[in-house]
Amino acid sequence: MSHTIREKQKLLNRVRRIKGQIEAVERALEGERACNDVMQLITSCRGAMNGLLAAVLEDHIRTHLVDADASGHVHEGSATERLVEVVHSYFK
């Protein structure tokens, strides 16, 4: 996954935020917070994880599954762009 180096700090920041959200779920459970509060926290974690997965998956698509020309330019309307759009819509 060496291609993620250029996005490394961004991805690590996302992971750290997710870690904080998971810790908030743990604190909520330990503090016996209301079910609605816990479910909201869990939903936020799930959304953050989906966002992380979408970012890594998009990079994978663009790096390994591209239909780019020799310069690395991906053409608008290409299969790659359509696939990225589908991925984004799925994770919303």
TrEMBL record:
Coiled coil (UniProt feature): none
Pfam families linked: Trns_repr_metal (PF02583)
A biological process term (GO) from this entry: negative regulation of DNA-templated transcription
InterPro entries: Metal_Tscrpt_repr, Metal_Tscrpt_repr_sf
Gene Ontology molecular function: DNA binding; metal ion binding
UniProt-listed PANTHER family: TRANSCRIPTIONAL REPRESSOR FRMR, TRANSCRIPTIONAL REPRESSOR FRMR-RELATED
Protein name: Transcriptional regulator
The organism of origin for this protein: Paraburkholderia steynii
